[in-house]
Amino acid sequence: MENFFTNDSGLPPFILTGFKGLELSQQWIFLLFGAFYSVSIVGNSLILFIVKEEESLHQPMYYFLAVLSVNDLGVSLSTLPTVMATFCFDAKEIAFEACMSQMFFIHFFSWTESGILLAMSFDRYIAICNPLRYSTILTDARVTHMNLAIVFRSFFMVFPLPFLLKRLPFCKDNTLSHAYCLHPDLIHLPCGDSTPNSIYGLCIVVSAFGLDSALILLSYIFILRSVLAIASREERLKTLNTCVSHICAVLIFYVPMVGVSMAHRFGKNAPPFLNTVMSFIYLFVPPMLNPVIYSIKTKEIRWRLIRIFSVSSSVRRELR
């Protein structure tokens, strides 16, 4: 199985790579990827099922969580084909068009996740700073419109990237640094001037990730100010506890994302495996950890999971 995607466009294919320097550990790395994919797909699917079935979770906060789970499934499934092909079948060649499509979806889901985290911070801000108007501000219709706006914003930001790359001549060794296609990796390969691509990529990173992270920080400044005005220490801790899951989700998304951007732009003299490890953390850790964090910190989800596994255990015992 030499070619994972057939190349009929006449454009040069790309060569995917695994972990450089760790070729002898490919089987263990494949098992690690398999564990991450399994936890991500099963965990996020369970979150979606529980939010759908549990009426007490039919609230804006959990609607946003459901959208986050759908997005995390998208992140996992967009990298799954080439990662499995690379590590399982040693199929390292990917057609130009297929690579462009994968790059589009990976970055689309990344931008969407940033927007969802911003919407969730707005939800926490309203719930804590203006609780009496929570249900009137975050109506079902408004939540739907916010989610659609996030999706459309991501689409229109990422849509030009494949076309900007396609106009350039690729005549070098088209070997990528990962087992999937990323824009910061691809813009180093063309023979022509990729400056417009770099400028556009930097602009949308600053305008999206930079603006989103700044607004999330601002919302938590207002939240903290409101919490500190509460007289009771127990009530302050209880209120802040409702934000812990979201804060963890923000940190595990933005910290690796900043690391990937810095490594690609300023890490030319860094060890080759650094970019690979940073992108691995950026793409695989948030989809895996988000359902785990929300399952642990959300009482309703935790109780429903316990019920699901208790019923499963009872059924297995009866079958024996």
TrEMBL record:
Q: Which residues cross the membrane?
A: 28-51, 63-84, 104-122, 143-165, 199-223, 244-264, 276-296
Its GO biological process terms?
A: cellular response to lipid
Q: Which UniProt keywords apply?
A: Cell membrane, G-protein coupled receptor, Membrane, Olfaction, Receptor, Sensory transduction, Transducer, Transmembrane, Transmembrane helix
Keyword Chaperone listed? The answer is no
According to Swiss-Prot or TrEMBL, what is its membrane topology? Answer: Multi-pass membrane protein
G-protein coupled receptors family 1 profile domain mapped to chain residues? 43-294
The Gene Ontology terms for molecular function here are: G protein-coupled receptor activity; olfactory receptor activity
The record ties this protein, via InterPro entries, to: GPCR_Rhodpsn, GPCR_Rhodpsn_7TM, Olfact_rcpt, OR51/52/56-like
Does this entry carry the keyword Transmembrane? yes
**Highest taxon of the lineage:** Eukaryota
- Location(s), subcellular: Cell membrane; Membrane
Q: Which GO terms describe its cellular component?
A: plasma membrane
Q: Can you tell me which family this protein belongs to? A: Belongs to the G-protein coupled receptor 1 family.
Protein name in UniProt? Olfactory receptor
Q: From which source organism is this entry?
A: Sarcophilus harrisii
